[in-house]
Design goal:
Elements (H helix, E strand, L loop, with lengths): L5 H7 L12 H15 L6 H15 L4 H17 L3 H9 L10 H18 L2 H15 L5 H20 L3 H18 L4 H14 L3 H18 L4 H20 L3 H8 L11 H15 L2 H17 L5 H15 L5 H15 L8 H7 L3
Amino acid sequence: MRVADLAAALRAFGLDVAELGPCDVDDHEARVRRLKAEGEKDGSDFAQLARDAWESGAVLRESHHHLAAKAYGCAALFMLHLGETSEAWAIQRGIDRNALAGEPDILAMVDTFAASAAIDSGDLAGAKTLALGAIELLGPPRSREHGAMVASARGTYGRAFLHAGEYEEAIVHLAASVELQERYAAFEAARSRGYLATAYRHAGKLDEARATIAHALEQNARDAPKRSASRQTAPFLHLEAGRVALAQGNLDDAERHLAEVGTDAARYPDLGADRTRVRAALRSGDVERARALAARCATTASALPRASALTQVGAIGFAELIVAHAATPEDEVRCVALLTHAFDRIVTREEVPVLVAAQVF
């Protein structure tokens, strides 16, 4: 059989050139340089991307330490997207930082990724240290790409304060991140405004929260036709908009935004929307609906094999019943067991209201 090129020959035998793995170091180098962009496409297969990143890191580990570290950093980021926070943190902890001594920008990127993983695994002091270290390594912005990295590190630093319950400090750093992104990475500003709105809401500054999330939604809607990452951000922004509306007592507006999030309870932010619906139903007096939604949250959390951010969201969704005094004694026992599983430590009944109030997800 005579064909025009290798790709055609592969197709003739039921193969695809795209399915062939990298065959040498140069191919792995090229793969690492495009990993982040691949992860921002619609429908990205994060499990496959994580495997690709890990494989390239292993190949490049001896000859190209800085690229191997970047590959492992991307692998951790993709694991975060999958909700596997413990695995993401483990990958970051295994990176040879000495190999990055001459690569401050790459080291800062790895530390920023590590800080995100630390936030999700609950190591907030570690997250602050890593993010602040990244900020110091980067210094002031010197280019568009470098400025985007500075903005990301500053935003991650702000998120660490947000999850620690230090809302005023979080507002300072998240607002600075938004300002930097407007200058160096405008497409990312809407997502950071979402975090800033969350900080405002937890700080009780509901008018600022509403104005901030409205700005974020408007900006993201303009960007979405041009960028898949913006389309992926939209459900997270609608989730926060729903929570702000609920905090202001506007139940109809809250449900309108939550309806834009999604209905797959096995992923975030969809499960976060269910948690918020539990609270909305309780506020409206529809205890039966609240219990049904809380049971769905609990079922999702129970099905997950290990502690993770997603497990915590499901367990907290069920715990909303305790806070609202709508739980039976059997519910309380189940809730404490779920929270213990989700946070990977012994949780007592007395802690439940504090955990629910502090949970950002």
